Amino acid sequence: MKNVASKLLGYAAAVAVLLVAWGAIALAIDSPALPGPVLALTEFVTQLPALVPEAIVSLLRVVAAMVLGTVLAVPLGLALGRSKRADAVFAPLVFLLYPIPKVVFLPVFLVLLGLGNAPKIVLIGLIVFFQILVTARDAAKSVPEPSVLSVRSLGASGLDVARHVVVPAAMPEIFTALRIGTGTAIAVLFLAESIAGTNGLGWYIVDAWGRIDYPAMFAGIIAMALLGVVLYEALNAIESRVTRWRHAGR
Length: 250
Prior knowledge:
Elements: H1 2-29, H2 37-46, H3 48-82, H4 84-97, H5 106-113, H6 117-141, H7 145-152, H8 158-195, H9 201-210, H10 214-242, H11 244-247
């Protein structure tokens, strides 16, 4: 309870700082393209009935993409990290593909998968996949050999080593990659929904911009920021449950 109160206090302080900075910049620029925080927040409250359905659509797309990318990348990355032979064969391929900005494939996905949810989910999932894959591989490689040998000396099988040593050791870094991937996923979501969308927060923001309705546009931006906070805190909550040993005694 104390941690929750402390976190809420931290968010309240951060929001206060942001609002003051936002208000100061809006006053300095004095342009309708950057409405003040009071006007934007008022519009946000007014537009809530319209924003909530769009936020749910965007949330489901991001969650589906992150689950898809994570489920595929974690076992593959851990396997590469623990198998020198597999790593020697597949790591060069990963290193060649990883730096390519996957967002350039959006037109290809749109042609192949249509204009619905599939191309957006596949694109975001692909980006998250490579981030998690590289992190899981490196985390598995960095597991100390004495830890593995000590478990093997007790008769543990390869599956036991993976379950009791490799996965727990890699889990914190995988969650860090997921948190970093959340920001990337939302940025790509905005791009995908704004280019080829008829719903979602990205579409809402660009539609408001097209109508030169800047307060509504910023209401959508606020909703997208809240979406990021929800995802970030959800990952924190899941990590706290999955890696309880890291928080013992705190």
